[in-house]
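User: Sequence in, structure out. Go.
Assistant: Echoing your sequence, followed by the structure tokens.
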Amino acid sequence: MKYSLLVSALLLSTTFNAFADNAKTLTVKEEIVINAPVEKVWEKVSHFNDLGAWHPAVKKTEIIKGENNKVGAERLLTLQDDGTIKEKLLSYNSKGKTFKYTIIEGVLPVSNYVSSVTVKATGDNTSTVIWKGDFKRKDLSATPAEGQDDANAVKVITSVYQGGLENLKKITE
């Protein structure tokens, strides 16, 4: 009896892991050229505690743990529709004008999400902002629920990045 329970548990575990493997890692990378000096653009995006300063979907950003721009800081984003996303800062390099963060929990249809924002000088008065994320869909099962598939996850993240970058360009140029 004990042996059959152990075998059943192992089979169940293996089956779950097989389903989790069905969800592949997805990547979205969006870039935008902004006609403004790199310092001006970095000043706008560099504050982990204020994504709402440049992303129109964010109504409010608050640091709920740690200190702004310090690794380990956690922020809570309240979206315009009152949905929330909790994120954690993984790395921050002001000299390199880049930071990396992860989503801890939230309304987006993704899991295992890690993203970076980088600002690069591409001329005296021109900058390029690169927003790149790797993630899996939220529903890791072999047959995800409607709206929880890979295509929808990519579509939503692409939309988030494009909306933020387009507004950043608009308010910074």
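User: And one key feature?
Assistant: The radius of gyration is 19 Å.
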